[in-house]
Amino acid sequence: MATPKFDSVSTNGEDKKPDLVRVNGGDGNLSYNKNSFYQRLSLNVVREKMVDAITRELDVKKLSSTSNTIRLADMGCAVGPNTVITMQDIMQVIKNKYQSECPDSKIPEFQIFFNDKSSNDFNTLFSCIPEDRQYFAAAVPGSFHNRLFPEAFLHFVHSAYALHWLSGMPEEMQDENSPAFNRGRVHYSSAPEEVENAYASQFDKDLDNFLNARAQEIVSGGMVVLIVPGIPDGMPCSHLTNSIMYELMGDVFMDLAKEELISEAQVDSFNLPIYSPCPAQIGQLVEKNGHFMVETIELTDPTSCYKGEIDIKMWTKHVRAAMDGMFLKYFEIGIVDEMFDRLVQRLFEVSDLVNSTYKDKTLMLVVLMRK
């Protein structure tokens, strides 16, 4: 079985990185539409804090003085009801604030833009939008690491469970002679320091590109709300619940290689483009970028609304709904099916460890204001 190669594609003189991440579209058993319940619970955890930040910091009088339309964008919206529910909630909070502060003024119109990669299933996404919506809706395909909107166009940007996906894997990780070559693993958890540093460096570049693009698109006084899977300052990545899963994925793939169902070279060349930043790292990156003021950076328990032990089968199914497209670029579907079947068994074997870690504060809320 040949190992797929990703080559850069040049469009209009710009180097484009491969589309590494695409959630499962449609409405099937493994679709993201039906398997994003955990993400929705996490969004509910930070909803009150996000509403409070909008109520305290967003100057609706200033924003509406230059336009009769308030424009919002959800970047990395994926598929399903989560993005629709969240953006409608945000719109309503802004609308209520405007009615409270400007009772004698006409309420501005609202426009919501749903952004994700061009491979995203926007048809399924738009089937979730109610017909009686009180806003104009549009899809904007493209990478949020690049410019997507005209200058000083947006008033509010939201992004949830998206920025932890890297735009691509660092070049040094694809060099067998590099200390950052991640042999026998699929993630930087429990990997040599050079591997983790390569991931961190790529995340730094990606976030800087994201902030630079948004700085041109957002009006002065506009707000950015980011919800990112994170990690407490100083905690080793290997202590994260997700990292337990990623390490077991690597172990299962290596078992499949020993059974000659795949090659070790395939395992060595495959790395999950997922990085969990800590609050200090985000703060330093925002300060260095210089275009935004930090209003909030805090971690919370993403499962505080979830009672009982984690449902390992459901959790794994959610992960597959988000990652299937990436795995299938490297491995045949039978291998992916087998890997996930074995992964569930391995996770049950360490269920005590999984349940002792998943309540950690690993959901990061970041609120930024455009200077």
In short:
This protein is α/β, with parallel strands linked by helices and 371 residues long.
List how many beta strands DSSP finds: 9
Share of helical residues? 40-55%
Mean pLDDT: 92
Q: Assign the CATH class.
A: Alpha Beta
Oligomer: single chain
Which structural class is indicated by helix and strand composition? alpha/beta
Fraction in beta strands:
15-25%
- What is the number of independent domains? 1
The ordered string of helix (H) and strand (E) elements is EEHHEHEHEEHEHHHEHHHE
Supply Rg: 21 Å
Query: What's the end-to-end separation, in Å?
Result: 52 Å
Low-confidence stretches: 1-19
The major beta sheet can be summarized as:
7 strands, mixed
Keywords: Magnesium, Metal-binding, Methyltransferase, Transferase
Organism: Acer yangbiense
Protein name: S-adenosylmethionine-dependent methyltransferase
GO molecular function: metal ion binding; methyltransferase activity
Structure description:
The structure is a single chain. The chain has 371 residues and is of the alpha/beta class. The chain has a single domain, classed as Vaccinia Virus protein VP39 (Rossmann fold, 3-Layer(aba) Sandwich). It is built from eleven helices and nine strands. The protein has helices spanning 37-57, 60-65, 81-101, 122-127, 193-217, 241-258, 264-269, 279-289, 312-327, 333-349, 351-357, and strands at residues 9-11, 14-16, 69-75, 109-116, 136-141, 154-160, 218-229, 292-300, 363-370. Strands 5-4-3-6-7-9-8 form a seven-stranded mixed β-sheet, sandwiched between helices. Strands 1-2 form a two-stranded antiparallel ribbon. A hairpin with a 2-residue loop joins β1 and β2. α1 (37-57) runs parallel beside α3 and α6 packs across α10. Mean pLDDT is 92; it is low at 1-19. Keywords: Magnesium, Metal-binding, Methyltransferase, Transferase.
